[in-house]
Amino acid sequence: MPELPEVEVVRRGLDAHVSGRVISEVEVLHPRAVRRHVPGPDDFAARLAGQKTVAAHRRGKYLWIELTGPAATSGEYVGADAGEALLAHLGMSGQMLVQPADAPDEKHLRVRVRFADDGPELRFVDQRTFGGLALTDVVVVDGARLPVPVAHIARDPMDPRFDAEAAVRALRARRTGVKRALLDQTLVSGVGNIYADEALWRAKLHGERPTAGITRAQGLALLGHATDVMREALAQGGTSFDALYVNVNGQSGYFDRSLNAYGQEGEPCPRCGTPVVRESFMNRSSYSCPRCQKRP
Question: What is the set of domains in the chain, with CATH numbers?
Answer without folding.
Answer: 4-150 (3.20.190.10), 164-288 (1.10.8.50)
